[in-house]
Amino acid sequence: MRAASEYRTADAIALYTGSIEANPNPAPLINRAKLYRWRLMFEDAITDLETAVKLDKQQGDEFAAPLAQELRECRILAENRFNGKRPLFIADLNDKGFDHVAGRIADTIFQGNGQLLAYHMVNEVDNAKKFENLSDFPSVKTLLNNWMKDQNVIDQALADQRIHAEYEPKRGIFEAMVCVYDYPDMAKLRDTIVRKIWCLLNPPSQMQAIWEASLRDPVQ
Fold first, then answer.
1. What is the rounded CA–CA span in Å between residue 181 and residue 90?
2. Which of 196, 219, 191 is nearest to 208 (CA)?
3. What is the 3-state secondary structure (H, E, C) of the chain?
4. Largest alpha-carbon pair distance within the chain?
5. Model pTM?
6. Per-residue exposure over 18-41, b if at least 16 CB sit within 10 Å of its own CB, e if not
7. For the stretch 65-100, what's the b/e string if a residue is b when 16 or more beta carbons lie within 10 angstroms of its beta carbon?
8. Is the dihedral of CA 105, 111, 112, 117 positive or negative?
9. CA–CA dist 203, 155 (Å, integer)
10. Which of 75, 77, 202, 217 has the fewest CB atoms inside 10 Å of its own CB, making it the most exposed?
11. With contact defined as beta carbons under 8 Å apart, do 164 and 119 qualify?
């Protein structure tokens, strides 16, 4: 739990896994599922939550209500992974490529709204910084190394409650669309969307040259 609170997500998942193997009970499964959910790995989250439900029934139904809610939400978000449409999404990605699909997702969800696009970009940078391995998110890493080094700037941008309220339902649509893909492709799509939004909101300039140089020779 301390590792999770410090955003050492890989360590937290490994520690929860060790706890589950040593003494199966619902609590670490629920906590690991939350981390999977933050990483949009809903199928893994559902597997943990379903196991937690079975264990909870054996151990007193202490977590029945929150487990039911978490499972319901994860199943709704992951519907396209299980309803037979997933092969169509994958075939489309293989045919059209990441740039095309990333642009279409952003256009479909945010419809050119600059404030929502910017909010989504910052939110994705924040989530990747806290929950992901940045080697899977090179564009996010470039932003963090150049223009978004200060966490206070990120926090201030995300503190706008008006935009947050408008963004939240669209975030759910975004998660439902990208979680269809297995993690490597999903991470690349998310990172590509961040890059495309940044380039859209910041026309070619000296900053763009820095961006391109950073991607060619990323800061370690």
1. 7
2. 196
3. CHHHHCCCHHHHHHHHHHHHHHCCCHHHHHHHHHHHHHCCCHHHHHHHHHHHHHHHHHCCCCCHHHHHHHHHHHHHHCHHHHCCCHHHHHHHHHHHCHHHHHHHHHHHHHCCCHHHHHHHHHHHHHHHHHHCCHHHCHHHHHHHHHCCCCHHHHHHHHCCHHHHHHHHHHHHHHHHHHCCCCHHHHHHHHHHHHHHHHHHHCCCCHHHHHHHHHHHCCCC
4. 62
5. 0.90
6. ebbeeeebbbbbbbbbbbbbbbbb
7. eebeebbeebbebbebbeeeeeeebeeebeeeebee
8. negative
9. 24
10. 217
11. yes
Instruction: Write out the two tokens for 171.
Output: 């975030």
Q: How far apart are CA 53 and CA 122, in angstroms?
A: 35
| Count of residues making up the chain | 220
Give me the amino acid identity at 94.
Answer: N
